[in-house]
Amino acid sequence: MELRYFQYFQVVAEELHFRRAAERLFISQPGLSRQILQLEEELGVRLFDRHSRRVELTPAGRYLHERTTLWLRDLDQTIANTRLTGQGLRGHLRIGYIGSAMQQTIPALLLAVKETYPDVHVSLRELENPAQVLALQNRELDLGFVRMERVPAPLVARPVLEDTFSLVLPEGYPLTAEEFTGLAALRHEPFILFEPAYSESYYENVMQLFDDAGFTPTLSHSTVNASSIYRLVANGFGLAIVPTILREGYAMPVKFIELTQVPQRTTLRVVWDGENEDALLGNVLGLL
């Protein structure tokens, strides 16, 4: 039982006239009649009552016409969507990210995707850097945003945004940006930092700030969450160092001093599986 049987049946059911239906289908009338007879034989029912001057659908024919209209329409839509998916114009994109990527990069990317590829659905998962790498390796994510210098092959990482570091102090701390002379003056203060597991390369970059200032900091707490860091700072548990982009989006009783005079920078990178040839992924990377 072939798909064309049902396509032929649909045209005859619409025309209720074999000659006109054959003309629409660009086949001979005898050939069309044979196809409909074969369909009836396969189904074991009559679909048409054939009279000398007219053709009518039987009750079985009316039912089949109703159902076939629906699933042929769905098949047409499926074929169209398959083409769009193959061209990367529709589909489902799974993105992992660390919190700082949500300040600017992710919202800008989502707006661009919505404008350029309105049929693309995006799902988001906030994950630590190592968890994103593992999810990408397991094909549970299509794209990630991390603060890592290197990722294992076949993953590929490219820089998206380079940022300075900022010192985080309680709102009432007696030090202003104009008075700040360097981290060395804060050697006796405890510090709150992102955990090394957050990203070893990021942690080493931050520790290099202290090495250049000539001391090893006393760590009072460590976490992977920026809002937790700010709450700890606000409550006097220590000072902190974060990417400057994390100044945005938080209403906390803390203040920031941007460390513009140090050479260290922190880079947000986009990472994906270099062996993933999905067209949608390529299109979104092009937008990014």
TrEMBL record:
Signal sequence bounds: none
The HTH lysR-type domain, residue ranges: 1-58
GO molecular function: DNA binding; DNA-binding transcription factor activity
Keyword Acetylation found: no
Keywords of this entry: DNA-binding, Transcription, Transcription regulation
Spans traversing the lipid bilayer: none
Taxonomy, superkingdom: Bacteria
GO cellular component: protein-DNA complex
Keyword Lipoprotein belongs to the record: no
Family membership noted in the UniProt record: Belongs to the LysR transcriptional regulatory family.
Protein name: LysR family transcriptional regulator
